[in-house]
Amino acid sequence: MGLFSRNKENITTNEYITLQNGRLKAVISPFGATISQLWYGDLWIASKGFTPGRFANRISGARFELDGKEYLLTANENGNILHGGPGGFARRHWTVVMTGKTAARLRMVSEDGDQGFPGKLILNVTFTLTNTDKLVIDYEAESFADTVVNFTNHMFFNLNGKSDADGHLLQINADRIAEMGPGLIPTGRLLPVEGTRFDYREMRDFEPSYDDCFAINGSGIRTAAKLYGSYSGIEMEVRSDQPAMQLYNTQTEICLETQHFPDSPNRPEFPSTVLKAGDIFRTRTEYCFSCSLQKDQK
Asked: Which of 14, 65, 173, 185 could disulfide-link 60, Cβ–Cβ 3.0 to 4.6 Å?
C-alpha cells in the first residue's frame, strides 16, 4: 500500500492511500474514490465505499429538463440511469491532489456532455479521520454550466465484522419515507413511517431487506442515523446536511447513503439538485464511532 506526498498533482495510479488516526484506519483507492477498507481497532467494519456521480441513485427515463431544454442521459438500469450511468464516477480513476497521515483529497473532472449531463464539472472529495474517531467526507463541486448533482458514499457496513448482518440495531431520524413506484422511482409523495416496517425512529433490531429513501428530519448537520453492532459494541452515528438517506442492505452488510432524493431533477416536490454555473455545491457527512464494550468483553 502506498502513501502519496502532500499536494502531489496529476497522479494516476492503482496504489492505495492509507489514513490513520486514533482507532480508525481507512484504505482508499483512487479507482472510484473508494473506501476499500475501514477499520475500527482490529475490526474491519466497512468496504466498497465508492463515490457515485454525477448523480447518485436513479433518474427516471434517463432524462430531465433544465432551463427549458431536455437532456438525454446514458441509461444503465431498465431505461433509467443509476449512479451516474455506465461510465459514472465510481468506474473511473480519480486524481489524488492531497494526502497526509489523516486526510486525502481526490478530484474528478467531468466534461460537458459526460453521460449526457450538461456542463463541465469539477468535484473534490476530501476524506478526513479525526482524533475523536470520526470519518468526515466533504464534497465540493463547481460546474461551468447549469447542471444537476447528487453525491454520496456507498460504504457497506458490518459493525460486527461477521459474515451476516444479524446483530445490528438501527435508528433513523425520519418521520417520512419516499413512496416508491416501479423501478424504485419515487412517486413524489412522502409517507409517514409510523406503524410500518420503515419506523426506525427508536433504536431496534435491523430487519432486512431495504432499498428505500428516508426523509431526514431537520436541516443542517444533524443526526441521520445510528447503527449499533451488538456483538462488537461498536456504535456509528451518521451526521449530514443532506435531506435524505438511502437504506440498502445485502445479506451481510448495510448501507446508509446520505444524499438528495432519487429522481429529484424530475420531481419538483423534492429539494432542488440544480447546480448553477459558477456556484459551489458543498455537502458534508460524518461517521462518528464509539464502543461500549471493553476489548476482553468482545
From this structure: 185
Residues of the chain with pLDDT under 50: 1-13, 295-298
Q: Among candidates 24, 33, 26, 32, which has minimal Cα distance to 1?
A: 26
**pLDDT at res. 294:** 59
Is 154 among the catalytic positions?
Answer: yes
**Of the candidates 138, 112, 143, 103, which has an alpha carbon nearest to the alpha carbon of residue 124?**
138
pLDDT reported for residue 204: 97
Q: Which of 235, 253, 257, 286 is catalytic?
A: 257
As given in the structure block, the three cell numbers for residue 140 are: 465540493
Cβ proximity of 159 and 234 under 8 Å: yes
The answer, yes or no, to whether the previous bond of 5 is cis (omega within 30 of 0) is no
- Identify the pLDDT of residue 2: 30
Domain count, the chain: 1
What is the pTM for the complete model shown? 0.93
CATH code, 118: 2.70.98.10
The set of cell numbers assigned to 261 is 432524493
How far from chain centre, in Å, is Cα 76?
A: 19
Q: Which sign, positive or negative, has the C-alpha torsion 260, 134, 210, 203?
A: negative
DSSP reduced 3-state for 295: helix
Tell me whether residue 7 is in a domain. no
Q: Which pLDDT value is given to residue 289? A: 98
User: Of 83, 154, 168, 260, which residue is the catalytic one?
Assistant: 154
226's grid cell: 445510528
Per the omega criterion (within 30 degrees of 0), is the bond before 222 cis?
Answer: no
Residue 273 lies in domain: 17-297
Q: Decide: 40 and 291 in contact? Cβ < 8 Å.
A: yes
